[in-house]
Amino acid sequence: MSLQQLTPDKFFYSNDGKVFTSIEELYRGLKEMSEETFLYHVNKEKNDFYNWIKFVVNYDSFAKSIQKVKTRSGFLRKAKEFVSA
Q1: Could you report the per-residue pLDDT of 43-55, keeping only the tens digit for each?
Q2: Which of 10, 16, 77, 82 has CB 3.0 to 4.6 Å from 6, enough for a Cys bridge?
Q3: Which of 40, 82, 37, 80 is nearest to 64 (CA)?
Q4: Residue 3 reports pLDDT greater than 70
């Protein structure tokens, strides 16, 4: 699935310095992302990936599918389903 082009003000800036410009890039980045970085962005207080996908990228159905996912492997599975569709 080819997704919209985002402008730099809409990119996802990870706390480890990586920048994601699309869900496809986020999916590839999640494969290499440390557990520490993942847990910085997804924990019981927040879900930065959900917020970015829902409110910035505006993919409501995908956002809803990952809203309660709290593990990197779970995110990878859902993201793979999305980018392979």
Answers
A1: 999 999 999 999 9
A2: 10
A3: 82
A4: no
CA dist., res. 73 & res. 79, Å (int) = 10
Closest CA to 38 of 64, 78, 67, 76: 76
| 65 close to 78: Cβ distance less than 8 angstroms | yes
Domain segments of the chain as ranges: 10-84
CA atoms of 47 and 74, how far apart (whole Å): 13
DSSP code for 5: P
Asked if residue 85 has pLDDT above 90, the reply is no
Q: Which residue in this structure is represented by tokens 């990586």?
A: 18
